[in-house]
Amino acid sequence: MSIMWNYLDKRRATVAALKDYDGMKFIIDSYHDDLKITKEQMIGVSSPQYGLVPGNHNKDNPTEPRLIHGIDQTAKLNERYQQARLYFKWFEPSWKKLSENERFVLDACYRTPNQSMNEGLTLLMDKFFIAKTTAYNRKNKAIDHLTLLLYVAHH
């Protein structure tokens, strides 16, 4: 294990991983549709063009740039998809080891779009009938548990 591992802010990295979950899920869910659209754009038939000067193809014929763009887009989609698959392979086993309540706490505090931490804590207070400090402590305990599962249990 590298010495730099000791200096990684694992808790902050866990929060970032939680916040990336929906984006990674979107990449996985939309991959096949995005790939299909990209391939359709690559093979789209262009109308015939008359009066082309031989040897002057690239200026008046958009086929080659369209194919190059499509190949580039396909490579990017494949790379994003592979990164998302690696993310889930790493993240999901730890996420599933959390209790249902821990997952609820982390969802409320970190994964609900357009919601502040205070709003998440208020949800916890209402669901569990607890004070704000207790809600904050539950959030911290849940994030610490997930951090332990992600960064310590794997190594």
Summary tags:
155 residues; 6 helices; 76% helix; elongated
Verbal overview:
By secondary structure, the protein is an all-alpha fold. Helix content is 76%, strand content 0%. Helix 1 (10-43) crosses helix 4 (100-111), helix 1 (10-43) crosses helix 6 (132-152) and helix 4 crosses helix 6. The model has no long low-confidence stretch (mean pLDDT 86).
In summary, what is this structure?
The chain is mainly α and 155 residues long. It has six helices and no strands. Helix 1 (10-43) crosses helix 4 (100-111) and helix 4 (100-111) crosses helix 6 (132-152).
Average pLDDT rating = 86
Topology, number of strands: 0
Terminus-to-terminus distance: 8 Å
Q: Helix/strand-derived class? A: mainly alpha
- Sheet having the most strands: none
How is the secondary structure organized here?
Blueprint: H1 10-43, H2 57-60, H3 63-97, H4 100-111, H5 117-128, H6 132-152
Helix pairs in contact: 1-3, 1-4, 1-6, 4-5, 4-6, 5-6
